[in-house]
Amino acid sequence: MHHTSARTAITQLLATKGFGERGLALVLAAACGDAEINAVTLRQQALDMASAMPAQQVTSYVGELLYAPIPKDEAELCRQLCPATIDLAKNIGLQLACLAGLVTLWPHVSSSERALMRQRYLDGLMSDQASSDMHLPSKQLIAWQRDLPTAKSEPNASVATLKGFLNETTPKDAYRIMSDHLGLNANLATLSWVLGSLAVQVRLRFHDPNRYLLHIILGTVACERLSHVAPPEHIATLITQIGHQLWWCRHEAGLQPIRTCIDHDIQYFHQAIASGNLTSAQRAARTLGQQPEQFWTEAWKMVAERIAAKDPNWHVALELVLVTAWRTDTDVVSPDDAAAVGTVMADLAYREKNAPEMVTH
């Protein structure tokens, strides 16, 4: 990460309490250019916008971690904070994205600042206002684990082998399928990526008014990146919790399905986005995704337009495009990931055109 930009994010985080959406926006703004060179020119403007975001209302953390030794590196930071995240996070996708952001910033945080930076993250965990039903407690995981049959040889994680867990009618049955992929030989980074792909597929079919699906996608990328520095047993539990959040979104969140538009007129990407027609935007994005260089140019252009207009949803656009760049590659873009960019961008345009009359999007 660009050191000067990281220092700006750190200074702003230390100036207010908590972490949350503002902290994530600061980290992602500082990361502009890390995944895709077209984003470099947006970095300072995005940092300015993130700095101006209101801080969340904070419930202070008062536990033993306030007095724990200061982690000297990212691995020690993960060993300290992953268990707290497992126990305290409700919106696990968002909090994991914040944790990965803190880990990314850690080398740029001075020794005198590290205790307070850790507290900022812990306060953010305590202040998570999401529904407690989204959270799968570790005690429940342990109880379900006892009921599992003797482990079989685990399948290699893929969308095909894992997608069945979303069709289960109870969280315990969904966990049973997930647990089949979490043996000693599991590739946790790949499993995180597969969960992200499933979250993308769900987002293409359902509206996401509270951005929980977007947070899941962010969280799966965070898990993938943290798997290289965090203890595998912690990552396995966090993956299970993200999987539960995705199952909960599919079955318990009351998400409204996206209505398919039968108008097959071919629209250019930017035109389809502006129309607010989600299925048209998906088609246009899939088409443009076959020209990766043009796709990324257009995607970052739309983020830049929202930043320049001081749009309150600018950070949603940034989160989506940046996490898509991390999930894929700047030389390619998968059809579903491209379509997800089109979906969310068109969704924002639709809500702006129809608010406050229509709030189901």
What does this protein look like?
The chain has 361 residues and is mainly α. It is 61% helix and 0% strand. The chain has 17 helices and no strands. It has helices at 3-15, 20-30, 43-51, 74-88, 92-105, 114-126, 138-147, 159-162, 171-179, 188-205, 212-226, 232-251, 269-275, 278-288, 292-308, 314-327, 335-354. It is globular.
Brief synopsis:
With 361 residues, the chain is mainly α. It has 17 helices and no strands. The chain is globular, with a radius of gyration of 20 Å.
Secondary-structure blueprint of this entry?
Blueprint: H1 3-15, H2 20-30, H3 43-51, H4 74-88, H5 92-105, H6 114-126, H7 138-147, H8 159-162, H9 171-179, H10 188-205, H11 212-226, H12 232-251, H13 269-275, H14 278-288, H15 292-308, H16 314-327, H17 335-354
Helix pairs in contact: 1-2, 1-3, 2-3, 2-5, 4-5, 4-12, 5-6, 5-11, 9-12, 10-11, 10-12, 10-17, 11-12, 11-16, 13-14, 13-17, 14-17, 15-16, 16-17
**Percent helix among the residues?**
55-70%
The helix count comes to: 17
Tally of strands: 0
Termini separation: 34 Å
Helix and strand sequence: HHHHHHHHHHHHHHHHH
What structural class should be given to the helix and strand makeup? mainly alpha
Strand composition percent: under 5%
Kindly report the average pLDDT value: 90
Largest sheet: none
Low-confidence stretches: 356-361
Apparent shape = globular
Output the radius of gyration.
Answer: 20 Å
